[in-house]
Amino acid sequence: MSTSILPTLADDPDSWLLVIGTPAGIGDALFELFQRGQDPAYERWASVLYPVTETGVFTDQQIGEFQRDATTPGAFEREFMCSFYSAQDEVLIPFDLVQAAMSRRGRPEMIAQVHEPKILSCDPARFGADSSVIFQRWGRVAYPPKVFNQIDNMALVGQLAQVANDWQPDAIMIDEGHGQGIIDRMRQLGYDVIAVNFASTAPDDSCGNLRSYMWLQVKKWLQDGAYLPNDQRLLSDLTSPQYFFNASNKLMLEPKEKVKARLGKSPDWGDALAISFAYPVAKKTVNETPQEYARRNMHERALAHRDYDPFAGVR
Questions:
Q1: Which domain holds residue 149?
Q2: Are residue 292 and residue 180 in the same domain, yes or no?
């Protein structure tokens, strides 16, 4: 919306925008706009809820019939009572669990433990509107992701190689669904990459596939007191996918394509983080402490105004 409607509104100082919709959970654009209207920092935005009980259009008897005819209690709460949070019973990772992880105080270098493995994970973009996302996770700390739109495979290889050289992770995990070319090139350059297949068998028999298992591990990691960067998109992604149990009574996460069809966006950020939980990783030799990495990274960022060439040593 910001790239299409807002510039048009800016042409006329007296113009205004009215957005009307029905809540579908906390992961879609309507929720993000509603939250903006509740945030004092956005002085020119306002948002209100009009549940059916306050409209005066329907009688109590009619409202009772709507409630009885609803497919689920959550559907009634969303469609008639304007509740963004009613779908939380249907999602794997609840809103308050992610919010708590984002609210925890402390710098990453003071939280990450030197004995914990460092994992670099990547979810390459599938389609034009999707994002390629790189996550760095050090034990119970997730660093802010690196996000790229419409980046080609070789450019993404360069970004991954740069992070890998700088951070020296204990493991690099990449989704092979749309990242096989990236995986192949990284291996050609000498990086030890673990290919992650979302549809493969989960190590936990209670999960129907590896993707469901990975997301369940994210939930357990958050319950154990993890730290997340405070980012609205990450919050939305992690709390969007719903779950169900298949015919074998195994946990299944809502497929990525269905999430995108339901909410209009793909949970790329959530999948990129979840990939770091695909397989257990043992800590290699300790090269530097989290504090040393933070100091070195700060110094190198101040100096890094040059382009990185991942192929310099292989020409």
A1: 95-299
A2: yes
Question: Does 65 share its domain with 186?
Answer: no
Query: Is there a single domain that holds both residue 83 and residue 110?
Result: no
Q: Is 313 within the bounds of a domain?
A: no
| Largest Cα span, the chain | 77
Question: 174 and 283 share a domain?
Answer: yes
Q: Spell out the residues 6+ positions from residue 94 whose beta carbon is closer than 8 angstroms to its own.
A: 88, 239
Mean pLDDT over each residue of the chain, to the nearest integer: 85
Name the domain count of the chain.
Answer: 2
What are the pLDDT digits (tens) for 6-34? 677 777 777 888 889 888 766 667 877 88
Decide if 310 is inside a domain. no
Rg of the chain in Å (alpha carbons): 22
Statement: residue 267 has pLDDT above 80: yes
Nearest to 308 by CA among 191, 167, 159: 159
Q: Is the pLDDT of residue 173 over 80?
A: yes
Helix axes 153-167, 180-188, angle to 10 degrees: 50
CA atoms within 13 A on the CB side of 245: 5
Asked if the structure places residue 315 within a domain, the reply is no
Q: Is the distance from CB of 130 to CB of 268 less than 8 angstroms?
A: yes
Mean pLDDT for 176-195 is 96
| 117: in domain | yes
Residue (of 290, 256, 257) closest to 275 by Cα position: 256
| Confidence bin at 308 (pLDDT 50/70/90) | very low
Find the range with the poorest average confidence among 143-157, 165-179, 271-285, 289-303. Answer: 289-303
Where residue 192 falls (left for φ over 0; alpha for ψ -120 to 50; beta otherwise) is beta
